Amino acid sequence: MPALRNMDALAAYEKLAALSRHPYDLSRSAPPPDRFASYLCRGAGFDLLYATQRVDGPVLAALQELADESGAVDQFLAMKKGAVLNRIEGYASEERQVLHTAMRDLFAGHPHAPEATSLAREELAKLEDFLAGLETGRVANERGEAFTDLVHIGIGGSDLGPRAVYLGLAAFRRPGRNVHFISNVDPDDAAAVIRGLDLSRTLVNVVSKSGTTLETLTNEELARAAFARAGLDPRRHFLAVTGQSSPMDNPERYLRSFYMFGFIGGRYSATSMVGAVMLGFALGYENFIEILRGASEMDTAAEERDIRQNPALLLALLGIWNRNFLGCPTVAILPYSQALIRFTAHLQQLDMESNGKSVNRQGQKIPYPTGPIVWGEPGTNGQHAFYQLIHQGTEIIPTELIGFRYNQYQEDTLIEGTTSQEKLMANLLAQSLALATGQESDNPNRRFAGNRPSAVLMADRLTPRTMGALLALYEAKVVFQGFVWNINSFDQEGVQLGKKLATRLLDHFGRCRQDAAYNGGMMDPAGWSLLQAAGVPARE
Ligand code: G6Q
Hints:
Elements: H1 11-19, H2 33-38, E1 40-43, E2 46-49, H3 57-70, H4 72-80, H5 114-136, E3 149-153, H6 160-168, E4 178-182, H7 187-194, E5 202-208, H8 214-229, E6 238-243, E7 256-260, H9 273-283, H10 285-301, H11 311-325, E8 330-335, H12 343-355, E9 373-375, H13 387-392, E10 399-404, H14 420-437, E11 454-459, H15 464-485, H16 496-512, H17 525-533
Parallel strand pairs: 3-4, 3-5, 5-6, 6-7, 8-9, 8-10, 10-11
Antiparallel strand pairs: 1-2, 2-11
């Protein structure tokens, strides 16, 4: 492992700072054709087109130096082999390995972290057996009927990634299998799902690594109560995915229990059992293995040291160029694929929870910006909503446009000489070019300054394999950025304080419940003052 130094202590930082005074101007004219051909990076089924970024040869060379000097790929390899990277030196911290890649390191001869991969294999074998049982009727409901529906209960990392992947691949769903999600502690989230179901043919998959998450445990109890009311035994319908020896690790309460492990962070867990059980039910075991295969291919591509051959690393470095050297505080991720409707929401968590940090891995305040604000919606819908600001607003918003040459369902029609897929792709490419080149006009309101950077990620079709590769590409992008920024991308202390204060408020609501004039605890000003007395601002 290289020494972990702040980015501004590296020689490449000064070079990039100097180069950023005169970055490549995209608005001068249409980018020369050879720029499109050479600014193309390929890996694991994806093309990353970056001719429309404000970079040129010297900037790319300095970004390569930044990657080399920070040891980004060495750190990635160390991560894959099980180094304890989830830590802050000299302070109490999680002190964990980071081994989500081990969950899909199944295809080459020698896994990087053999023990973790063999645990993954054990869980996969259990899942394969369970799914086969559903198929043959060995696992069935009280009346011997097949299960048709599965409700996935989980929140944060136990919801966003799995849900984004499920929606991304709904086109590959097995006939007669439906999936539903409950995440929010808002009772209406659960009610809206449960009331429409035939519970007798429904499985409930409760997913919580810690087995202590308020929202998930509350929703599990709501679901159990609904089964009890319907005269059904939850032990014949409920599945658990949890950490070993968590409060939920109680196989007697469940039809089947699966494990995820301490060395996998929630937001990196979609390819562990956290995603596997629901995705295996919905898509079939083989399709889930295809997701793992695609992810593994991208994990391998991410080991490449030449940034021009490593899409995840290059995307990470382009992001750092835009964030730290061109001063852009946000990045919009715009999938030109309706199936990726929740993918940006997953990336929001993946990126902002990982890299929304202000101290480095030695616990010192960091003197440069770290994780950007991540946002976005699928195109073309976004074009009719917020692209105005991206084109003509006062803030420069780098964009990442994700597209596929072919659609998922084999259904498309020529209308006015082009298919809908062609219309979709034409819009994606047009946006990228329009943002780069802008438009002159004598009318100031119709002038587009251009020079707004975008990157295009393109694959043939959104399949289980490319979905796995895309997921892994962004996981690797986020950890590469964290490595270069010298931050811990694997903890999330920033979510603790709000949780702690909510627990204190709930204690107060509980006490108020004894009061005859109780109003449900809502908006009770006395609650706020009591809370203050209980210690706000808080000190650990
Ligand atoms: C993700 C976070 C967080 C976590 C949820 C759910 O990296 O750790 O979003 O996934 O809080 O946690 P449980 O799976 O433990 O219920």
